[in-house]
Sequence to fold (314 residues):
Amino acid sequence: MAFVVYVDGQEGTTGLRINDYLAQRSDIEVLRIDADKRKDAAERARLLNAADVAFLCLPDAASREAAAMVSNPKTCLIDASTAHRTAPGWVFGLPELCKGQREALRGAKRIANPGCHASAFILALRPLVDAGLLAPEALVSATSITGYSGGGKGMIAEYQGDAPAQLQSPRPYALALTHKHLPEMMSHTGLKTAPVFMPVVGPFYKGLTVSVPLHLQQLRPGSTPEQVREALAAHYEGERFIRVMPLRDADTLASGFFDVQGCNDSNRVDLFVFGSETQVLLMARLDNLGKGASGAAVQCMNVHLGVEESLGLV
Ligand SMILES: NC(=O)C1=CN([C@@H]2O[C@H](COP(=O)(O)OP(=O)(O)OC[C@H]3O[C@@H](n4cnc5c(N)ncnc54)[C@H](OP(=O)(O)O)[C@@H]3O)[C@@H](O)[C@H]2O)C=CC1
Ligand SMILES: CC(=O)N[C@@H](CCC(=O)OP(=O)(O)O)C(=O)O
Fold:
């Protein structure tokens, strides 16, 4: 018997991509809402409550509204928005976060998927905190370079229309230093202080890389770049979507440049450690619409339904 799935926000950037993934699956029956009822609360409530799994691919306020509509105890919600990522009762949708996370996702009926920048930041730093290399009290900074599809339909239209010249250069943003991913970045790494975080959106569709520069003096005394890479490799051993690259990745150093789009069209995260005698630079790369959004949501569904090993993501 097929699992019944509904995507609330089926016409948005994340929803469309989830539907592409689901279309390849014979074990999933997708409920679709009529075009003229896409924002009709009663019809959305009916479909949400008819689903085994419902994805919320909506702005935050609409996600909160949708969650409040669900009374069927069997419906599992997987929310792609920022609304519930540190909310009590919701499990964070990052199976690789730590031991026990998969089991938590199997049992959960409320799953909040990470933000795209946050996924990369957390996957790069959580192992260092868990291994005792980076103290929870550490003060860190991060930048993120991202494609414009991260900004949803609105930003895509801005870039693909008659775009003004300033959109052709990288644009730093969130300069009030209050980016909406900071709470989840702290809560799911264990860091007690928010990083100084500067995202930069560039004139390409998708692909994202978070970089975290660290002086070795910021780490446990005596730490080396080798130990940093080792901590990542040990944490993610056996994880099929996480690739810990060789220390000082030779291909990148030989080419001289880092390829921000190198994980596009995959659900993969590549983790890089570059290092000198006194410094390390951690870089985490993903497709913001893959492991940064829709791929991650489908992966969480697979984990929840207990079909993770068999299905559809690369
Ligand atoms: N794009 C990305 O890389 C990522 C996005 N996310 C998050 O996922 C969520 C969806 O983002 P994204 O797909 O990019 O956004 P889009 O703007 O592309 O799509 C949002 C969709 O939600 C629909 N919608 C808005 N309000 C309602 C409502 N009240 N009822 C039903 N549908 C509604 C919109 O309808 P309409 O078409 O009429 O505007 C639109 O189709 C957001 O919370 C976003 O922050 C998370 C990680 C990464
Ligand atoms: C380029 C761009 O604007 N990106 C979005 C993040 C996309 C994402 O992860 O959004 P949610 O947290 O809403 O899920 C931003 O930085 O706000």
About this structure: The CA atoms of residues 59 and 241 lie 27 Å apart.
